[in-house]
């Protein structure tokens, strides 16, 4: 027997009288979470966004509220619930930046033929987490587990790009006191302003004689800098023109790693603090 239009559901919207399948329900639930990411959404608006009836939308939303994936705020509507915050925290804690970055680093090393580093901030030093040697006959003394000054390495400078200038100066002075290569703060800070505006950093033979590098920051879902990558080589392979070309490539790879870590450049922009 053919059902009347008042009882049957549209194949493009609602399910049939027997109800949606399990996979259909799951997909609808995931779609509903996506529909409330911009804040509280009232039932009528949510139904319109979903292309479902109010009753079906209400049933599905209530199930998500009961399981903690949605929250219902009186007189305002539905918004993302605490379960998602918990899952997001777990996902972030399980994201191994070394493992995630590795294939990107390998591709970058093959493309450039130079040494690629990954590092993160460890208190007031740059900690080297991974290293892929280049194919050129260039001896770069860095090792996994090494710690180097933040202000005299490309990797370290990339890790500092979000910091306020007052912190730059304090870090610069602290590094010099610990024996970092001597340098003048004013030209160093001028270059850092350019780096912060453009999202990259250079090491111009500041940390190791005749070695230059191009670095860029890596961000996670919070939008904050959690690591940095760099391409390093002998100065003879790193003239100003090549460094300018490389910086776009290094930034692109850092961006790809950041996206894999959950960074959303629209939802979590992080301009440098004044």
In short, what is this structure?
This protein has 274 residues and is of the alpha+beta class.
The CATH superfamily of the largest domain appears as GAF domain
Instruction: Report the span from N to C terminus.
Output: 70 Å
- Sheet with the most strands? 6 strands, antiparallel
General form: elongated
- Rg, please? 25 Å
Give the uncertain stretches in residue-range form: 1-18
Count of alpha/pi helices: 9
Helix content: 40-55%
* CATH architecture descriptor text of the largest domain: 2-Layer Sandwich
Oligomer: single chain
Derived structural class:
alpha+beta
Strand content: 15-25%
Give your account of this protein's structure.
This protein is elongated. The chain is 43% helix and 18% strand. The chain has 2 domains: 22-90, Arc Repressor Mutant, subunit A (Orthogonal Bundle); 95-260, 2-Layer Sandwich (Beta-Lactamase), CATH 3.30.450.40. Strands 5-4-3-8-7-6 form a 6-stranded antiparallel beta sheet. The chain has a two-stranded antiparallel ribbon with strand order 1-2. Helix 2 packs across helix 3. The chain is α+β, with helices and mostly antiparallel strands. The protein contains 9 helices and 8 strands.
What features would you highlight for this structure?
single chain, 274 residues, alpha+beta, Arc Repressor Mutant, subunit A, Beta-Lactamase, six-stranded antiparallel sheet, two-stranded antiparallel sheet, 9 helices
What is the fold's blueprint, element by element?
Blueprint: H1 22-35, H2 43-50, H3 54-66, E1 70-73, E2 77-80, H4 82-94, H5 97-112, E3 115-122, E4 125-132, E5 147-149, H6 154-159, H7 165-177, H8 185-198, E6 201-204, E7 211-219, E8 225-234, H9 240-260
Antiparallel strand pairs: 1-2, 3-4, 3-8, 4-5, 6-7, 7-8
Helix pairs in contact: 2-3, 5-9
């Amino acid at each position: 027997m053919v059902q009347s239009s008042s009882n049957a559901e549209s194949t493009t919207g609602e399910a049939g009288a027997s109800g949606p399948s399990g996979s259909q329900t799951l997909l609808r639930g995931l779609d509903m979470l996506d529909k409330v990411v911009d804040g509280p959404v009232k039932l009528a608006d949510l139904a319109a966004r979903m292309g479902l009836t109010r009753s079906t939308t209400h049933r599905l939303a209530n199930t998500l509220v009961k399981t903690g994936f949605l929250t219902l705020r009186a007189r305002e509507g539905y918004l993302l619930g605490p379960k998602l915050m918990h899952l997001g925290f777990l996902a972030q804690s399980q994201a191994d930046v070394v493992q995630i970055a590795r294939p990107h680093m390998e591709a970058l090393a093959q493309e450039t033929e130079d040494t690629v580093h990954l590092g993160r901030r460890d208190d007031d030093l740059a900690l080297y987490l991974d290293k892929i040697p280049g194919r050129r006959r260039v001896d770069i003394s860095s090792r996994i587990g090494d710690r180097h000054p933040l202000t005299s390495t490309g990797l370290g400078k990339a890790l500092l790009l979000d910091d306020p200038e007052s912190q730059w100066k304090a870090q610069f002075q602290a590094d010099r006191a610990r024996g970092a290569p001597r340098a003048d703060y004013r030209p160093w800070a001028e270059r850092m302003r350019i780096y912060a505006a453009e999202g990259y950093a250079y090491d111009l033979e500041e940390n190791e004689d005749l070695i230059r590098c191009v670095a860029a920051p890596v961000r996670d879902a919070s939008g904050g800098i959690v690591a940095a990558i760099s391409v390093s080589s002998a100065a003879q392979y790193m003239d100003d023109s090549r460094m300018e070309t490389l910086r776009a490539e290094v930034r692109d790879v850092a961006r790809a790693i950041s996206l894999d870590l959950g960074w959303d450049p629209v939802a979590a922009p992080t301009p440098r603090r004044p």
